[in-house]
Amino acid sequence: GQNIDQPTEMTATEGAIVQINCTYQTSGFNGLFWYQQHAGEAPTFLSYNVLDGLEEKGRFSSFLSRSKGYSYLLLKELQMKDSASYLCAVRDVNTDKLIFGTGTRLQVFP
Amino acid sequence: SQTIHQWPATLVQPVGSPLSLECTVEGTSNPNLYWYRQAAGRGLQLLFYSVGIGQISSEVPQNLSASRPQDRQFILSSKKLLLSDSGFYLCAWSTLLTGNTEAFFGQGTRLTVV
Known about the structure:
The structure holds 2 protein chains of 2 kinds.
Chain A: E1 2-5, E2 9-13, E3 18-26, E4 29-37, E5 44-49, E6 53-57, E7 60-65, E8 70-75, E9 84-92, E10 98-100, E11 104-109
Parallel strand pairs in A: 2-11
Antiparallel strand pairs in A: 1-3, 3-8, 4-5, 4-9, 6-7, 7-8, 9-10, 9-11
Chain B: E1 3-7, E2 10-13, E3 19-26, E4 32-38, E5 44-52, E6 55-58, E7 64-70, E8 73-78, E9 87-94, E10 104-105, E11 109-113
């Protein structure tokens, strides 16, 4: 089975950098995903890592270490609109299922 | 381009009443389909998963069921709703055909059982 852990809540200041960590345990790993979800809305895809290393997309970057079962999402130059929940999800290679962590609620303050 | 439709957007149902939520995908073939539930302030719980017509995997024992009568149609049902069934229900699809494997979500159905 899978077990995915993320911090429940984080706070940061506008313009700052924040790192949201995710650790996972899975019987068969086939990719890690980060989603953003604003309150009351559906999640939207942010990033995908299947190999070790850093993937950069504008202000957002995601890192993966498969040997450590660890990923982080890095948000730079924070804006108020970045206040949202950030969900880490892992795909199981055997079943192709996408399993989500409980999400990290980020609040950005002026 | 691919789109996913989920309806209704909101629903208020009395305890003991039946439920039917529908999800359809356009612009792709043989997608993997998912039903998730999200309680207030919580993460996404996978309820059902389907890799093809009539192939449904149930993740959590409960009074909900799912069906896939057509390739791009996924239905979530209940014969008798419980108060604990309240939540935000999300349908999603994914496919390996595009080379990416991320899941795309419908807009969700907010269900309140009263």
